[in-house]
Amino acid sequence: MDIGNGRRAVKSGAPAKGADARPPLTVSRNDLLTDGADSEFRQLVHRLLAFSARLETCRSGFGALLDLTGVQYTALISIAHLEGDDGVGVKTVADHLGLSGSFLTIVTGQLAKRGLVEKSTNPQDRRRVHLRVTDKGRELLEGLAPIQRDVNDLLFQPLDAKRFRALNDIFADLIQAADEATALIGYYSQSGTDAARAPKARLRG
User: What is 65-134 written as a DSSP string?
Assistant: First the structure.
Protein backbone atom coordinates (compact mmCIF):
# COMPACT_ATOMS: atom_id res chain seq x y z
CA MET A 1 0.00 0.00 0.00
CA ASP A 2 1.55 3.27 -1.11
CA ILE A 3 0.78 6.85 -0.23
CA GLY A 4 1.49 9.45 -2.88
CA ASN A 5 0.18 12.90 -3.75
CA GLY A 6 -2.16 12.76 -0.79
CA ARG A 7 -3.98 9.64 -2.08
CA ARG A 8 -3.74 6.09 -0.88
CA ALA A 9 -3.31 3.62 -3.73
CA VAL A 10 -5.06 0.36 -2.82
CA LYS A 11 -4.32 -2.74 -4.86
CA SER A 12 -7.28 -4.62 -6.26
CA GLY A 13 -8.29 -7.92 -4.72
CA ALA A 14 -9.09 -8.86 -1.14
CA PRO A 15 -9.25 -6.01 1.38
CA ALA A 16 -6.21 -5.42 3.55
CA LYS A 17 -6.13 -7.01 7.00
CA GLY A 18 -4.37 -6.32 10.25
CA ALA A 19 -2.54 -3.11 11.04
CA ASP A 20 -2.88 -1.75 7.49
CA ALA A 21 -6.66 -2.24 7.33
CA ARG A 22 -7.41 1.47 7.68
CA PRO A 23 -10.46 3.10 6.05
CA PRO A 24 -9.77 4.76 2.69
CA LEU A 25 -9.00 8.46 2.64
CA THR A 26 -12.07 10.69 2.52
CA VAL A 27 -10.14 13.71 1.25
CA SER A 28 -7.14 14.01 -1.06
CA ARG A 29 -5.94 17.63 -0.80
CA ASN A 30 -2.59 17.80 1.00
CA ASP A 31 -3.74 20.89 2.90
CA LEU A 32 -6.39 18.75 4.59
CA LEU A 33 -4.13 15.79 5.39
CA THR A 34 -1.78 15.28 8.32
CA ASP A 35 1.15 12.97 7.57
CA GLY A 36 -0.88 11.48 4.73
CA ALA A 37 -3.86 10.69 6.99
CA ASP A 38 -7.30 12.27 7.13
CA SER A 39 -7.94 11.74 10.87
CA GLU A 40 -7.84 15.48 11.67
CA PHE A 41 -10.15 16.20 8.75
CA ARG A 42 -12.63 13.60 10.05
CA GLN A 43 -12.35 15.19 13.49
CA LEU A 44 -13.19 18.60 12.02
CA VAL A 45 -16.21 17.25 10.14
CA HIS A 46 -17.54 15.51 13.24
CA ARG A 47 -17.00 18.61 15.36
CA LEU A 48 -18.90 20.69 12.81
CA LEU A 49 -21.74 18.15 12.88
CA ALA A 50 -21.76 18.17 16.68
CA PHE A 51 -21.86 21.98 16.80
CA SER A 52 -24.54 22.07 14.10
CA ALA A 53 -26.71 19.71 16.17
CA ARG A 54 -26.36 21.95 19.22
CA LEU A 55 -27.04 25.06 17.14
CA GLU A 56 -30.22 23.42 15.82
CA THR A 57 -31.26 22.60 19.38
CA CYS A 58 -30.88 26.26 20.34
CA ARG A 59 -32.79 27.38 17.24
CA SER A 60 -35.62 24.96 17.97
CA GLY A 61 -35.62 26.17 21.57
CA PHE A 62 -35.97 29.79 20.49
CA GLY A 63 -38.82 28.80 18.21
CA ALA A 64 -40.58 26.80 20.92
CA LEU A 65 -40.51 29.82 23.24
CA LEU A 66 -42.53 31.66 20.55
CA ASP A 67 -44.72 28.62 19.80
CA LEU A 68 -42.99 28.32 16.40
CA THR A 69 -40.88 25.69 14.68
CA GLY A 70 -37.17 26.35 14.35
CA VAL A 71 -37.41 27.27 10.66
CA GLN A 72 -40.41 29.55 11.30
CA TYR A 73 -38.45 31.39 13.97
CA THR A 74 -35.43 31.70 11.67
CA ALA A 75 -37.56 33.06 8.84
CA LEU A 76 -39.24 35.56 11.16
CA ILE A 77 -36.03 36.98 12.63
CA SER A 78 -34.36 37.03 9.20
CA ILE A 79 -37.20 39.09 7.73
CA ALA A 80 -36.93 41.47 10.69
CA HIS A 81 -33.21 41.98 10.02
CA LEU A 82 -33.51 42.27 6.22
CA GLU A 83 -36.75 44.16 5.66
CA GLY A 84 -35.45 47.75 5.90
CA ASP A 85 -38.01 50.48 5.20
CA ASP A 86 -39.73 48.85 2.22
CA GLY A 87 -39.90 45.18 3.21
CA VAL A 88 -37.86 42.37 1.71
CA GLY A 89 -38.47 39.97 -1.17
CA VAL A 90 -38.98 36.25 -0.73
CA LYS A 91 -35.94 35.46 -2.90
CA THR A 92 -33.68 37.67 -0.82
CA VAL A 93 -34.69 35.91 2.39
CA ALA A 94 -34.51 32.47 0.75
CA ASP A 95 -30.99 33.15 -0.57
CA HIS A 96 -29.94 34.49 2.83
CA LEU A 97 -31.06 31.26 4.52
CA GLY A 98 -30.03 28.88 1.76
CA LEU A 99 -33.64 27.74 1.25
CA SER A 100 -35.71 27.39 -1.89
CA GLY A 101 -38.13 30.19 -2.68
CA SER A 102 -41.06 27.76 -2.78
CA PHE A 103 -40.27 26.39 0.68
CA LEU A 104 -39.86 29.87 2.15
CA THR A 105 -43.19 30.87 0.61
CA ILE A 106 -44.84 28.05 2.56
CA VAL A 107 -43.13 29.09 5.80
CA THR A 108 -43.97 32.78 5.42
CA GLY A 109 -47.55 31.80 4.60
CA GLN A 110 -47.70 30.02 7.97
CA LEU A 111 -46.29 33.10 9.69
CA ALA A 112 -48.82 35.32 7.92
CA LYS A 113 -51.68 33.15 9.17
CA ARG A 114 -50.36 33.69 12.70
CA GLY A 115 -50.36 37.44 12.13
CA LEU A 116 -46.57 37.65 12.49
CA VAL A 117 -45.71 38.57 8.89
CA GLU A 118 -47.58 40.64 6.34
CA LYS A 119 -47.25 40.36 2.59
CA SER A 120 -47.63 43.16 0.07
CA THR A 121 -47.24 43.41 -3.69
CA ASN A 122 -43.98 44.85 -4.99
CA PRO A 123 -44.99 48.10 -6.74
CA GLN A 124 -42.15 47.67 -9.27
CA ASP A 125 -43.09 44.08 -10.10
CA ARG A 126 -46.59 42.96 -9.17
CA ARG A 127 -45.60 39.31 -9.56
CA ARG A 128 -43.31 39.63 -6.55
CA VAL A 129 -44.18 39.87 -2.87
CA HIS A 130 -42.60 41.98 -0.14
CA LEU A 131 -42.46 40.68 3.43
CA ARG A 132 -42.59 42.66 6.65
CA VAL A 133 -42.79 41.64 10.30
CA THR A 134 -46.00 42.85 11.94
CA ASP A 135 -46.18 44.64 15.29
CA LYS A 136 -47.24 41.34 16.85
CA GLY A 137 -44.21 39.56 15.38
CA ARG A 138 -41.87 42.34 16.47
CA GLU A 139 -43.27 42.18 19.99
CA LEU A 140 -42.52 38.46 20.16
CA LEU A 141 -38.94 39.00 18.99
CA GLU A 142 -38.38 41.81 21.47
CA GLY A 143 -39.58 39.58 24.31
CA LEU A 144 -37.23 36.80 23.18
CA ALA A 145 -34.16 39.03 22.79
CA PRO A 146 -32.88 38.85 26.42
CA ILE A 147 -32.93 35.04 26.26
CA GLN A 148 -31.22 35.08 22.86
CA ARG A 149 -28.45 37.26 24.22
CA ASP A 150 -27.82 34.94 27.18
CA VAL A 151 -27.78 31.81 25.00
CA ASN A 152 -25.76 33.25 22.10
CA ASP A 153 -23.19 34.89 24.37
CA LEU A 154 -22.56 31.47 25.92
CA LEU A 155 -22.75 29.57 22.63
CA PHE A 156 -20.02 31.70 21.06
CA GLN A 157 -18.09 32.45 24.25
CA PRO A 158 -14.75 31.11 22.91
CA LEU A 159 -14.60 33.76 20.16
CA ASP A 160 -12.91 37.12 20.52
CA ALA A 161 -13.51 39.86 17.93
CA LYS A 162 -10.70 38.67 15.64
CA ARG A 163 -11.71 35.00 15.70
CA PHE A 164 -15.37 35.92 15.27
CA ARG A 165 -14.72 37.87 12.06
CA ALA A 166 -12.32 35.23 10.75
CA LEU A 167 -14.87 32.47 11.39
CA ASN A 168 -17.59 34.49 9.70
CA ASP A 169 -15.42 34.89 6.59
CA ILE A 170 -14.45 31.22 6.61
CA PHE A 171 -18.06 30.09 6.72
CA ALA A 172 -19.00 32.41 3.88
CA ASP A 173 -16.38 30.64 1.75
CA LEU A 174 -17.41 27.20 3.02
CA ILE A 175 -21.05 27.78 2.13
CA GLN A 176 -20.09 28.71 -1.43
CA ALA A 177 -17.90 25.61 -1.70
CA ALA A 178 -20.69 23.50 -0.17
CA ASP A 179 -23.02 24.54 -3.00
CA GLU A 180 -20.57 23.03 -5.49
CA ALA A 181 -20.10 19.95 -3.30
CA THR A 182 -23.85 19.29 -3.07
CA ALA A 183 -24.08 19.62 -6.85
CA LEU A 184 -21.30 17.02 -7.16
CA ILE A 185 -22.95 14.55 -4.78
CA GLY A 186 -26.18 15.05 -6.69
CA TYR A 187 -24.37 14.18 -9.91
CA TYR A 188 -22.90 11.04 -8.36
CA SER A 189 -26.31 10.08 -6.93
CA GLN A 190 -27.88 10.24 -10.38
CA SER A 191 -25.01 8.57 -12.23
CA GLY A 192 -23.99 5.88 -9.74
CA THR A 193 -20.61 5.10 -8.23
CA ASP A 194 -18.97 4.67 -11.65
CA ALA A 195 -19.37 8.44 -12.08
CA ALA A 196 -16.49 8.89 -9.63
CA ARG A 197 -14.16 8.20 -12.52
CA ALA A 198 -15.64 11.09 -14.53
CA PRO A 199 -13.88 14.47 -14.43
CA LYS A 200 -15.44 17.01 -12.07
CA ALA A 201 -15.24 19.60 -14.84
CA ARG A 202 -18.43 18.14 -16.29
CA LEU A 203 -20.37 19.95 -13.57
CA ARG A 204 -19.18 23.30 -14.88
CA GLY A 205 -19.21 22.41 -18.56
Answer: HTT--HHHHHHHHHHHHH-TTT-EEHHHHHHHHT--HHHHHHHHHHHHHTTSEEEEEETTEEEEEEEEE-
Answer for the pair 83, 119: CB distance below 8 angstroms, yes or no: no
Give helix then strand counts, H and E, for the chain.
6, 5
User: 156-193: b or e for each residue (b if 16 or more CB lie within 10 Å)?
Assistant: eeeeeeeeeeeeeeeeeeeeeeeeeeeeeeeeeeeeee
Which residues contact residue 55 at a Cβ distance below 8 angstroms, ignoring those fewer than 6 apart? 155
* pTM of the model as a whole: 0.79
Three-class SS state of 204: helix
Distance CA 97, CA 93 (A): 6
Residue 189 CA to residue 48 CA, distance in Å, equals 24
d(CA 36, CA 57) in angstroms, rounded, equals 36
Percent of the chain scoring above 70 in pLDDT = 81
Instruction: Please list, in sequence order, all residues whose beta carbon lies within 8 angstroms of the beta carbon of residue 144, skipping any fewer than 6 positions away.
Output: 62, 65, 66
The tens digit of pLDDT for each residue in 69-91 reads 999 999 999 999 999 888 899 99
CA-based nearest residue to 105, from 93, 96, 116: 93
Contacts of 103 (CB under 8 A, 6+ apart): 94
Q: What are phi and psi of 70, to 5 degrees?
A: -60, -45
